[in-house]
Amino acid sequence: MRKVPPVGTPTDLLDIARALLLRKGIEGFAHSLKGLTGRRFAIFVNSGTTAYYLILRALSRMDERKGVFLPAYTAPSLILPIERASLKPGFVDVDLRTFNARTSFPVTDDTLAITVVHMYGIPTWFSREEEEELRERGIFLIEDLASALGSTLGNRPCGSFGDVSFVSFNRGKNLSTATGGAVLTDREDLYRLLLDEAERLPEPSLPERLNIFLRTVALSFAVRPWFYGLFRPLVSRYRYKGLHQDFRSLRYTPFQAALGAILMERGEEIFRRRHENGMHLYRLLSDVKGIRLPAIPEDSRPAFNQFPLVVEDPEKRDTLYEALTGAGIEATTLYPEPIHRAYNLFKGEDPFPNATYLARRILLIPVHPYVEGRDIERAARVVRKCLTEATKSAKKPKKAD
Q: Which of 22, 241, 308, 326 is least enclosed, having the fewest CB within 10 Å?
């Protein structure tokens, strides 16, 4: 049975063969990435987590302040670079209208930077006035582009906001080279510090480079619906499970850079398909009761990483998840807890209740380029049917004992 996997960057064996032969892959990928985001400088590393860590290390060399803000609900692994850089994390709650974090951070005199995250590929509302206010206070703005490569807000591409941005090329991202990440900036002073940090990173060993190559080949098949339908039990074994407790920082491989440059040749088509699939699903679900859809910023083009919806009854979310999976649509529930709960950072009353609410009710539906119109329509039918039946069941009077 054809099954749609949760993630998918269309990569074939010809792309991989070309990547093995292509020279100057780093330069080519950097040129494409800078052109997409409007940035002047790009540095590649082995993951988005490492990219974030390099940014924090470089900023710490520019300023002695220690506070770094980030959303309470985002990738839990982001706290690891903050701790490794000997900085102090701070959090801001989620806006249940946008599903993104609020941009009004409770900064203090010890705040070094704030991290704005475009969750699910949906741009976070952020104005030039807010950027300027942070700049006047000497607070750095870091933009997390991990799930939003190809998204735009107004006439600006995501990745062009603030002092520095970082992107991930992990297997679940908008454009994947199996692993990898990049740092993007316009500031030459920051770029030189970032480059100094990056040059200290070790090269992947020969077995590690071979592993990356084999994973890339395997992933090129695993994300295809026909293959995923046949081998889902096997592929599912390699999903991430549990919290990350550490991360390795390495350089990016020339093979991955070459593959990234090749994929960027059709990057606009990949991002357009993500946007169109997501907006198609948005229209089909806009009148369904029992779910909440995110507000999409005006004059934006979200290149959806996955399509998010909030199921207001958390028990119905589990039912809907099973129904979609049974229909051949592999939905996901993302992070089961917000960061402050996942790492037990606060005791007593929950300081970020919206983040907790979202974590326990959100469901993500795949909209990557391998998703076809019939898949979108089937997913919408399942959501509508499942929520309608659950509502009817709840309204039935109970029989007397």
A: 241
Tell me which amino acid residue 91 is. Answer: F
Distance from C-alpha of 370 to C-alpha of 6, rounded to nearest angstrom: 10
List pLDDT tens digits, range 67-107.
Answer: 999 999 999 999 999 999 999 999 999 999 999 987 778 88
Residue 130 has pLDDT above 80, yes or no: no
Residues 20 and 166 reside in one and the same domain: yes
Residues 171 and 70 in one domain: yes
Within 10 angstroms of residue 109's Cβ, the number of other Cβ atoms is 8
Q: Where does residue 276 rank: exposed (0-12), middle (13-18), buried (19+ CB within 10 A)?
A: middle
Domains identified in the chain, total number:
2
Asked whether the beta carbons of 274 and 244 are under 8 A apart, the reply is no
CATH number of the CATH domain containing 387: 3.90.1150.10
Task: Domain of residue 57: give its range.
Answer: 13-199
Contact 45, 252 (CB under 8 A): yes
Query: What's the pTM value of the predicted model, to 2 decimals?
Result: 0.93
